[in-house]
Amino acid sequence: MEKQFINYSNIFLNHKMLEDTVCDAGIKEHCLLYIYSGQIEFEQDGHKVLLREGECAFIRRDNRIKMNKKSNKKTGVYQSILLRFSRQFLHDFYRKLEPSSIPTEIKRSKASIKKIPIRPDVVSLFESIKPFFESNVEPSEQWLNMKMIEGLYVILNSDKTLYASLFDFTEAWKIDLMGCMQETYMYDLRLEALARYTAR
């Protein structure tokens, strides 16, 4: 029997459901999301991005996004996998990069969600992860780390401007507090969450 929800060391997250769901989520860390089955629609500030089966996207940290997950019409299942990149993991990776390999004079993309073109390296990465969620075998930390690095290269090889997003280790910009409260009043945010989203 397949597991419905698995989290290995806060690195991989697999989610399987049999009904459509709509949720509002605060994105605290950079993520890479891949859809195995069904589809997901992101909405932020009136802008929508749709991911279908076999598609992948980079999601930037420190923002709030509405998500509408829909199951596959034939199988009735939604299934995705998420790689979450902590600041510490990114910092450790960045320190090992050769300075000459880091693009210069690039500007950080303002987009919160960026679709990743489907390439052999994308498909290979996520198809190699899936078997662990369908068995009782737990992957080693070394294997997990290797897959996280592979995921980073999927992002970096997609768009050079994402170097600026991934390796920005400053705190989030201070966002207008009143504006943020007016935009998010319907979400009943805790004080701590409001402080984080406005970098206070």
Major sheet attributes = 6 strands, antiparallel
State the helicity in percent bands.
Answer: 25-40%
H/E element string? EEEEEEEEEHEHHHHH
The CATH architecture of the largest domain can be named as Sandwich
Question: What topology emerges from the helices and strands here?
Answer:
Elements: E1 5-8, E2 12-17, E3 21-27, E4 30-37, E5 39-44, E6 47-51, E7 56-59, E8 63-70, E9 78-85, H1 87-96, E10 113-116, H2 120-129, H3 141-156, H4 162-166, H5 177-184, H6 191-197
Antiparallel strand pairs: 1-2, 2-9, 3-8, 4-7, 4-9, 5-6, 5-8, 7-10
Task: Give a quick summary of the entry.
With 200 residues, this protein is α+β, with helices and mostly antiparallel strands.
Structure characterization notes:
There is one protein chain. The chain has 200 residues and is an alpha+beta fold. It folds into 2 domains: 5-169, Jelly Rolls, CATH 2.60.120.810; 174-200, no CATH class. 28% of the residues lie in helices and 30% in strands. The chain is built from 6 helices and 10 strands. A 6-stranded antiparallel beta sheet has the order 1-2-9-4-7-10. Strands 3-8-5-6 form a 4-stranded antiparallel beta sheet, with no helix packed on it. Strand 5 and strand 6 form a beta hairpin. Helix 2 (120-129) packs antiparallel against helix 3. The chain is globular. The mean pLDDT is 81.
Relevant terms:
200 residues; Jelly Rolls; 10 strands; 2 domains; four-stranded antiparallel beta sheet; six-stranded antiparallel beta sheet; globular; 6 helices; alpha+beta
